[in-house]
Automatic annotation (TrEMBL):
SUBUNIT field: Part of the ribosomal stalk of the 50S ribosomal subunit. The N-terminus interacts with L11 and the large rRNA to form the base of the stalk. The C-terminus forms an elongated spine to which L12 dimers bind in a sequential fashion forming a multimeric L10(L12)X complex.
Gene: rplJ
Repressor listed as a keyword: no
GO biological process: translation
Keywords in alphabetical order: Ribonucleoprotein, Ribosomal protein, RNA-binding, rRNA-binding
Protein name as catalogued: Large ribosomal subunit protein uL10
GO CC, alphabetical: ribonucleoprotein complex; ribosome
HAMAP family: Ribosomal_uL10
Family: Belongs to the universal ribosomal protein uL10 family.
Database matches in NCBIfam families: PRK00099.1-1
GO MF annotation, one: large ribosomal subunit rRNA binding
Described function: Forms part of the ribosomal stalk, playing a central role in the interaction of the ribosome with GTP-bound translation factors.
Record-linked Pfam families: Ribosomal_L10 (PF00466)
Amino acid sequence: MSLNLEEKKAVVAEVSAQVAQAQAIIVAEYRGLEVGAMTKLRAEARKSGVYLRVLKNTLVRRAVDGTPFAGLADQMVGPLVFGISTDPVSAAKVLSDFAKTNDKFVIKAGAMPNQVMDVNGVKALASMPSREELLSMLLGTMQAPIAKFVRTLNEVPTSFVRGLAAVRDQKQAA
């Protein structure tokens, strides 16, 4: 599909807006992938808040030019899908999980601001917990001492009640 100049400018502006807010961009080759599989990937990306598009490489090169993701331009060769997200982990996680189940889907590279990653870097990023998971782990760690203290305080009246019940049982048995 050929785009006229105005459409190209609109695409570059849209991608530039996404890149300006991005914390991570993942690039993957989708050559030979069936439409149904690509539709599933798009649905998964939408659920995770990942901007996922198949774009002309030259338009994306223009969009990332002059941004912290400019180093990724060298990796833009062949039919590529671009996953852009504001969460550093979510794009890598969605695309890596999809690549595990689809042999024809190959992750080429990724980038975080001012840092280009190879495939192993993207896989390492995908294995990290998401922001929400990290926050829940932190909250659990912070709540543990308080919860233990509350259980300890609760044990005093509980043991008193158990003692009264034991005295009552002794008197009833006698």
